[in-house]
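Please decode residue identities from the backbone states below.
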């Protein structure tokens, strides 16, 4: 692997070491001897390997993280050089078709790779943690998982979610810098696209394309989602994608956007009124949504419980004139996944610690209480990202303006 220069790596050797150390500490606390990782985000976190190849449904990639030592990766021979190029993972088990002569093969597939890796460890493995719980996802076929459990009947396959989440929820300075940059690029793209909206001409898809092109120009290498809502027919849909609808004068345009830089996500929501002087009712709704987020930010500090953040955000909304229309909880952590542990909700008792990053959000969605949320007639949501520091909190995006208008761009 020394033939590949370090600048090609996804992150530094020190960053890789920090990830492995955190994973192994959490594995020890959970009583897990090895983690079996299949999701692209967890594989990237543990090795630095990131490739479009993981989007295939037919070429499984698995990573084995031991309680002691460095991880191993199992995949097809064609990707071996990519792993060597961008990853720090020293143990590569390559499978493939021998007749193609693509290089030396040292495994016949995931089960064989795992068997060989277990044989090379200097300790006995009894428990293997899987991506089995809420907030995680096992990617490959259940046939492969069954093959692994059948091949190793003496092993206990258990839920490794706590170890994975415990490691990933405290961000390193390098991770924080990526999230901060992704947030800045995303916000800039939104504002510059708002500047170009022309009521009666611009479509929702024009808005989506404008934001996406500016995000990629700013360095975003993946867009998780890009939703655009405008007009009474869509205000109640929350997360629908852009349509060919032409936005009109006095419309509200709500965009909820996530883009990644080096794997790490932004998550922002912004709202614009397509006119110069919005109705006072609109201003009150938008400011209420913004103030909810700021109430959560003011609560964000080490030692509080996550449910207390939800109480602060939701409590502000409940205390407003729109308090009867609470629709959803108040945000989530962000990182390699747009939404990751912990979720900001009343049933989350996780203790907030320095290094956590949260997307704080809530909104005002007036609707007929007897008929349900399908009757929402307008939507005002605010969402910004914030970092927990030793002394409180720091904005990683925004804080955003409550309501943009066309007057902001004259």
């Amino acid at each position: 692997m020394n033939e590949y220069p370090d600048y090609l790596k996804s992150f530094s050797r020190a960053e890789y070491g920090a990830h492995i150390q955190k994973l192994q500490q959490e594995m020890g606390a959970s009583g897990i001897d090895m983690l079996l990782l299949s999701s692209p985000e967890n594989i990237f976190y543990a090795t630095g390997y990131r490739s479009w190849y993981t989007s295939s449904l037919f070429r499984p990639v698995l990573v084995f993280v031991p309680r002691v030592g460095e991880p191993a990766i199992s995949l097809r021979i064609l990707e071996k050089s990519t792993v060597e190029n961008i990853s720090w993972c020293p143990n590569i088990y390559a499978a493939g078709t021998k007749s193609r002569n693509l290089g030396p093969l040292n495994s016949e597939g995931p089960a064989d790779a795992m068997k060989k890796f277990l044989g090379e460890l200097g300790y006995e493995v009894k428990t293997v943690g899987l991506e089995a719980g809420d907030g995680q996802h096992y990617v490959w076929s259940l046939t492969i998982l069954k093959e692994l459990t059948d091949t190793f009947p003496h092993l206990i396959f258990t839920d490794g979610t706590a170890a994975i989440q415990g490691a990933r929820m405290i961000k390193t300075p390098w991770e924080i810098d990526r999230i901060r940059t992704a947030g800045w690029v995303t916000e800039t793209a939104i504002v510059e696209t708002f500047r170009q909206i022309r009521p009666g001409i611009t479509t929702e898809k024009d808005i989506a394309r404008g934001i996406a092109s500016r995000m990629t120009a700013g360095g975003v290498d993946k867009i998780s989602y890009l939703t655009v809502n405008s007009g009474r027919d869509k205000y109640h849909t929350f997360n629908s994608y852009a349509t060919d609808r032409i936005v009109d004068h006095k419309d509200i345009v709500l965009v909820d956007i996530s883009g990644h830089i080096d794997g790490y996500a932004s998550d922002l929501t912004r709202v614009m009124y397509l006119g110069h002087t919005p109705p006072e009712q609109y201003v009150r709704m938008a400011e209420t949504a913004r103030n909810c987020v700021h109430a959560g930010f003011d609560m964000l500090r080490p030692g509080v419980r996550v449910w207390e953040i939800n109480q602060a955000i939701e409590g502000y909304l409940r205390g407003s004139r729109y308090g009867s229309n609470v629709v959803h909880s108040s945000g989530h952590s962000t990182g390699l996944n747009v939404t990751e542990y912990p979720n900001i909700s009343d049933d989350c008792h996780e203790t907030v610690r320095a290094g956590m990053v949260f997307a704080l959000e809530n909104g005002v969605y007036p609707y007929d209480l007897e008929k349900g949320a399908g009757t929402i007639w307008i939507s005002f949501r605010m969402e910004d990202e914030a970092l927990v520091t030793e002394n409180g909190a720091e904005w990683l995006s925004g804080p955003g303006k409550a309501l943009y208008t066309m007057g902001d761009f004259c």
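Observation: The domain at 173-409 is CATH 3.90.230.10 (Creatine Amidinohydrolase).
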